[in-house]
Amino acid sequence: MIGNNKTEANNGISFEAINRNKFVSMYAFILFFMTTITAATLEVSSASFKQEGFIPAIYSCEGKSINPPIEIRNIPDGTRSLALIMDDPDATKGTFVHWVAWNIDPAKKTIPENSSPGTEGKNGAGKNGYIGPCPPAGTGTHHYHFKVYALDSKLNLQNNAGKAELEAAMEKHILAKGELIGLYHKSK
Q: What are the φ and ψ backbone dihedral angles of 29, each rounded to 5 degrees?
């Protein structure tokens, strides 16, 4: 006997039971996925400024143009190196790269102020190392993104590599990432 197609399949199993099992399976998958995403987030902070806070002038072109201290927590097991990209998406001619570095030792968990962590590549000015915030006059407050990546390997890049080369090299090696955003407005 063939039952009502709203409640029974040909083998006697109700569609409600099938749909309920699909729902439970989908719910379990979503929970697992969300847990994995949460676990794969680095906590990036600085003792010099808070998330979405103003970066002190000492770290800008109006100061000493030295890098601020950066702390990294929640580094996952299996991390062999860290990479960092600092850029300004508010720049008038497109995103300006202020700092790229890779093969940073994950055991240190801190990038000290005025330091050269790992290997530093080319910034937007064509020089290796950090270049501080320096938005052109009249362009308002800019957002500076300090993006840190936990990688499952060290990278084999030349020190003349820039942001694009770094992103390509680390593409399939990212275990986790985190971001600290600082603001800066030129005073003169």
A: -60, -45
Distance between CA atoms of residues 59 and 46, nearest Å: 12
Which among 96, 85, 82 has a CA at the least distance from the CA of 136? 96
Nearest to 157 by CA among 98, 94, 104: 104
pLDDT tens track of the chain, all 188 residues?
454 544 444 555 555 545 555 554 554 445 444 434 444 799 999 999 999 999 999 999 999 999 999 999 999 999 999 999 999 999 999 999 999 999 999 999 999 999 999 999 999 999 999 999 999 989 999 999 999 999 999 999 998 999 999 999 999 999 999 999 999 999 87
List C-alpha distances in Å: 105 to 70, 101, 173: 13, 11, 15
Q: Among 3.40.50.300, 3.30.530.20, 3.90.1150.10, 3.90.280.10, name the CATH number for the domain at 43-184.
A: 3.90.280.10
Domain ranges of the chain: 1-39, 43-184
Q: Which residues contact 79 (CB under 8 A, 6 or more apart)?
A: 106, 150, 151, 152, 175, 176
CA distance 28 to 21: 11
